[in-house]
Amino acid sequence: MAFCCGFTKGYQKRSFRSSEKGCRNCPLRLECCGRTTKFKKIEVSIHKPLYDEMHEKLNRDKNYTRFLVKRRSSTVEPVLGTLINFLGMKRVNTRGMKNANKHVLMSALSYNLKKYLKFKGKKSNSNIQIMNLAKGMLRLFEYWFLRTSKASF
């Protein structure tokens, strides 16, 4: 198979493509290529060796795998679940990586602000002070956000 490196739309991958001549008389052609395609094309990430190394490591050491799954389920998954189910992050409704990063940043800010307000609410009895602090933080973020970005949501 011939190799060509593709750099399309920021995703770096390796493309392997067979020749039409090589596939023409192959007995497995129908299973491999199908009826209409005349060649086989396989695309893999440039980071495939790292993925393979991690899979080997996880298959080799079951205790390490259990540890990673337990740690992830207690740290990352609850945050993602909250963002998806309660903060409307089922999909990013913007175009481009820059705007998608802003969208995720705003979601993370709202998540952290909710946690902060919940934490401060337990310590302080004055909800007015907390709301003023939250408004100030949002104004500061809006100022920073408008200064650093020319594109809008």
From TrEMBL:
UniProt superkingdom: Bacteria
Native organism taxonomy: Bacteria, Pseudomonadati, Bacteroidota, Flavobacteriia, Flavobacteriales
Pfam families: DDE_Tnp_1_6
Domain Transposase DDE: from-to ranges: 13-116
Stated name of the protein: Transposase DDE domain-containing protein
InterPro entries: Tnp_DDE_dom
